[in-house]
Amino acid sequence: MVALALPAPVPIRLGRAAPTMLRAGRYLYCGSAYGPGGLPARLGRHFRKAKSIRWHVDQLTTAGEVLGAWAVAQGDECALVRRLGFLPVPIDGFGASDCASCRSHLLRWPRRVPRSAIVAALAAGGGSDPVWLCANA
């Protein structure tokens, strides 16, 4: 679960649709790390500014500040999105173009929602507590 802060609005393009403006603020992106290199490779890419824009989330990580990420052992991105269902969805389809069950894998993290509420929701699956990985470490 990558936490990001956008200092200014960012135009987001999903496929061939016209760009949608995503307003400044904090966001959470739910993704998996099951590909080659696992979690270190995936987070290394998200934490790096210089990269080609390949995935939806790359538009955010290159335009804003990646604060860090919560690693959830055996975490399923769709289950994490469901646990955080109290957060608003800013863009339908973001990061979920191949997902049949989720409206979006991007959630807005309003200032009024404390970090503790996010951690509690992520831990609600009964597994181990999520581990915070700082982007600036």
Chain-wise SSE layout:
Blueprint: E1 2-6, E2 10-12, E3 20-22, E4 25-29, H1 38-47, H2 58-63, E5 65-71, H3 77-83, E6 106-108, H4 115-123, E7 131-134
Antiparallel strand pairs: 1-4, 1-5, 2-3, 4-6, 5-7
Short structural description:
23% of the residues lie in helices and 22% in strands. It is of the alpha+beta class and 137 residues long.
Keywords:
single chain, 137 residues, five-stranded antiparallel β-sheet, 23% helix
Written account of the structure:
It is built from 4 helices and 7 strands; from the N terminus they run ββββααβαβαβ. The chain has one domain. The longest helix is centred in the first third of the chain and has 10 residues. It is of the alpha+beta class. The mean pLDDT is 91. A hairpin with a 7-residue loop joins β2 and β3. The protein has a 5-stranded antiparallel β-sheet. A two-stranded antiparallel sheet has the order 2-3.
Q: Which residues sit in consecutive blocks of at least 5 with pLDDT less than 50?
A: none
Helix content: 10-25%
Number of helices: 4
Query: How much strand?
Result: 15-25%
In order across it, which strands form the biggest sheet? 6-4-1-5-7
Distance between the termini: 17 Å
Number of domains: 1
Order of helices and strands: EEEEHHEHEHE
Mean pLDDT: 91
Tell me the number of strands. 7
* Biggest sheet statistics: 5 strands, antiparallel
Q: Measured on Cα atoms, how large is the radius of gyration?
A: 14 Å
The class by helix and strand makeup works out as: alpha+beta
Overall geometric form: globular
